[in-house]
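idk why but the lab printer keeps eating my pages so im just putting this in chat instead. protein + adenosine-5'-triphosphate:
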Amino acid sequence: MIRFNDVSFSYENSDEMAVRNINAHIGRGEFVGIIGPSGAGKSTLLSMINGVIPHFYKGDFYGEVLVCGRDTVESTCGKLSHHVGSVFQDPESQIVSTVVEDEIAFGLENFNIPAGEIEARLAEALRMAGIEHLRHESTAALSGGQKQRVTIAAAIALRPEILVLDEPTSQLDPRGSRQVFTTLRQLNREYGITIIIVEQKVMLLSEFCSRLMVMEKGRIIMDGPTRSVLEHNDRLLELGINCPRIVTLTKLLKNASLWSGGYPVDVDEAETVVRGIMEGTHDQYQEPELSIQ
Ligand SMILES: Nc1ncnc2c1ncn2[C@@H]1O[C@H](COP(=O)(O)OP(=O)(O)OP(=O)(O)O)[C@@H](O)[C@H]1O
Ligand SMILES: [Mg+2]
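predcted complex ->
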């Protein structure tokens, strides 16, 4: 679906490479999380998938990016938008309409979706993004988190094959963030949409993504199944990435030789590990004899 062949890019007003020597392949239906410190090149990488680079941000572009078989340099943002939906880091910059429902319908009309289908798509997108109640609201009056949900709804409504999201939950509380990830999982599983998300909340990435890419200084320094990447929690911590508490707990259990298996990726799995240890060692555990004097 997406192929980066030895890609490097520097913005036109900079002589440093924002991303360098990127080689990666993302297959249909993957749910990929991207993490890394500020300035690592995460947003730049996403902008190469939806064509914002090189069509909006100019600079020196090396290598090639293929999206659904199209070379992004030879294609246009408009053409790529039929394959790739985008949710940008700053919702303010993305919203163009004054009323929520118009914002979502706008993209559908641009894509020449038949009028009869627009209502159904609109209603579904509002429901999936959890903002049915905001349908007739003015976009200017929304909170940052609500705006983020509107941009997510607008992207969902277009049912792209690929959805790239840049920190879409930065202004949402933990409950709202989880709802967004749950919606993304639904899109991924039910419609087979390939999801690529830059996100700071590693616990959510751990639970929902099948694959993690870690970026540092423009490079992808780790790329693999979520569980395997989290095993390198010491290296992640050096980059300032705090691993979920279940990872820290598992590490303690490993250091104490109580657990030699893989890292759990969510709380349910962690509970199974801990219960297993408690039940497994229970037989060996002797109650000290009670001494009564
Ligand atoms: N429009 C731009 N013009 C010039 N340089 C840029 C531009 N956007 C990003 N850069 C530079 O490119 C590098 C990668 O930036 P990028 O925004 O991709 O990082 P990021 O990992 O998304 O960071 P953050 O976590 O802060 O969003 C940084 O050195 C940044 O300063
Ligand atoms: Mg960024």
